[in-house]
Write a structure and sequence with these properties.
362 residues, alpha/beta, 19% strand
Length: 362
């Protein structure tokens, strides 16, 4: 077992025990903790700490744990700064102008994928995948398990290097996008640090990045927008699953990334909570930046998206790119409409086709 003591970040900021930060290889300057384990410590205020360590990789914008438990520490141990946020009054994402995606021509795709191929030995995860996503488009990836949805998302975010092909982010390379911290990530597990309160978890990445990214007024506004006002001081153990995912969404948006990448963020939630969080996501997004969203839910994809890209497996590739012609803002009453029914029926037929193709390829 390797114990990692607190060390100094590049700009003299102290980071959490056990978490190694790597500006060069970490997209967005986000946490890197590669197979390290840390010594359990009490959280304080009567909140019990997990007994056990962490075996994790957090190059994806969150703490990804392959172990069952998260390493506890003292409240504030991970804090980079206690300084106040910059800026004026509260601002929320929904109130920003549509031109908020920096340096992107609205006529050009914000994400451009050309001839992408990802292979692991003889196994081809993605083959000849080409896709464009506009500066303010919400695009969902839908398909059977093993069709490469998550692989594609991770290639876009720079977490996986493709075997062939190219991804461009706002006319630059993925590496350039990572250096300017263009990506915000939300995953199925909120992976909040258990020794940090909700508000502290929400500003974690902004603290690490520092400078203008730490806009406390913006973070407070986002917390209010997602319905977490008054829960800033709650520990993750005191929050429901849906509330934890709201914190994760705020954490990803807190430093105002250019692109939001979401890999089944609501999959572990019950249907009612999932619906509510879908509405919350649309509200904070407000067509301000591109979102690439992975889901297995046909109804969720149809309701949230501008386009749904249906993928087939073995190897993973695009089967069909479906335009969702529903007006915005999206209201849940739309789900009872004939138009919505026809969209979901078409998507279901495509999924059945993709599934049949995958079974034939076995």
């Amino acid at each position: 077992m390797v114990y990692v003591e607190p060390r100094q970040f590049a700009v003299g900021q102290q980071v959490d025990p056990g978490l190694l930060l790597d500006r060069e290889h970490d997209p967005g300057g986000i946490l890197q903790a590669l197979g390290r384990r840390v010594r359990p410590q009490p959280i304080g205020n009567g909140v019990a700490a997990d007994e056990g360590g962490l075996d994790c990789h957090a190059g994806d914008g969150s703490i990804q744990s392959s172990a069952a438990k998260i390493p506890p520490s003292r409240e504030g141990a991970a804090r980079v700064t206690d300084g106040p946020g910059t800026g004026g009054g509260p601002r929320v994402l929904a109130e920003r102008p549509r031109s908020s995606v920096a340096d992107v021509d609205s006529r050009e795709p914000s994400i451009s994928i050309r001839g992408l191929r990802v292979a692991y030995g003889r196994t081809v995860a993605l083959s000849d995948t080409t896709l464009d996503i506009g500066p303010r488009e919400f695009v969902s990836l839908l398909g059977p398990s093993g069709c490469g949805k998550t692989t594609l998302l991770k290639v876009v975010g720079g977490l996986i290097r493709p075997t062939a092909g190219e991804v461009r982010i706002a006319n630059g390379t993925v590496e350039e996008a990572r250096r300017r911290r263009a990506f915000g990530f939300v995953f199925q597990d909120a992976t909040l640090l258990p020794w940090r309160r909700a508000g502290s978890n929400a500003r974690l990445l902004a603290e690490i990045i520092g400078g203008k990214a730490l806009d406390q007024a913006r973070i407070d506004g986002l917390l209010r927008t997602v319905g977490l006002a008054g829960f800033d001081d709650s520990y993750p153990s005191q929050l429901s699953g849906g509330m934890k995912q709201r914190v994760a969404i705020v954490r990803a948006l807190a430093f105002d990334p250019q692109v939001l990448l979401m890999d089944e963020p609501f999959a572990a939630l019950d249907a009612l909570t999932r619906d509510r969080l879908g509405e919350v996501l649309l509200h904070v997004w407000a067509e301000s930046k591109p979102i690439l969203f992975v889901t297995h839910s046909i109804e969720e994809a149809a309701f949230l998206s501008d386009r749904v890209v249906v993928m087939r497996a073995r190897p993973g590739r695009v089967l069909e790119d479906v335009q969702i012609d529903l007006p915005r803002p999206r209201l849940h009453e739309m789900k009872e409409s004939h138009e919505f029914f026809e969209i979901t029926r078409r998507l279901r037929r495509l999924i059945d086709e993709a599934q049949a193709t995958a079974e034939e390829a076995r």
